[in-house]
Amino acid sequence: MSTDNSQQPAALDQAVHDGMAPYHRRALTFYDLIVFRGSAPLFWRCSPQNFRQMYTDCVGAKHLEIGVGTGYLLAHARFPVSNPHITLADLNPSTLDFTAERLAHFRTTKVVANALEPLPVPAESQDSAALSFLLHCIPGSLREKGVAIRHAAAAVKPGGTVFGSTVLSKGVPVTRAGRWLMDNLNAKGVFHNDQDDLEDLRDQLKQSFDDFDLVVRGSVGLFRARKG
User: How far apart are CA 216 and CA 123, in angstroms?
Assistant: First the structure.
């Protein structure tokens, strides 16, 4: 069952628009194969099991997914209740529709939202919020786009969890093949992570949370934080 509370933000940065353009319905059909069977294990050296386990460990009964992709990780998660309520937040109507259809057996709400702006969900209304493979797609340095972490934190209840993952370019091991793909994706405007440093990510988490874990798997930073 899906409800749609979509509201187009008034002003969108052109680079953000350009970054979401490749994620149209036809491309989304192949996204899982390309990312979770291709780039993640082969180029970023991070097994998809890391992402699936993080969802199973962190996802709550009321969950906010910021940057929804295809819903692959939500579809493979084990929720703590049989009827979770999932809010899907993304700028791209194609990804929202694709993911809502995939998760039709859950209660879902779609909202058009820019992670760099305050999210159109009630404050402290969610048990968990995820930003998975999102930050490396947002323009700017982590010192600038780290505001997305703060917006996620604002949406989560005290005691709730914010978690996610991002491909980093500095402070982590990057293979020659990984660097080639990263440079290519940055040149195309699909990625914006050429300045993304592990310590900057740690600093952004510190600004919102006293209690968090940040681990590196290959070129990927995976984080989970509990709101006090």
Answer: 30
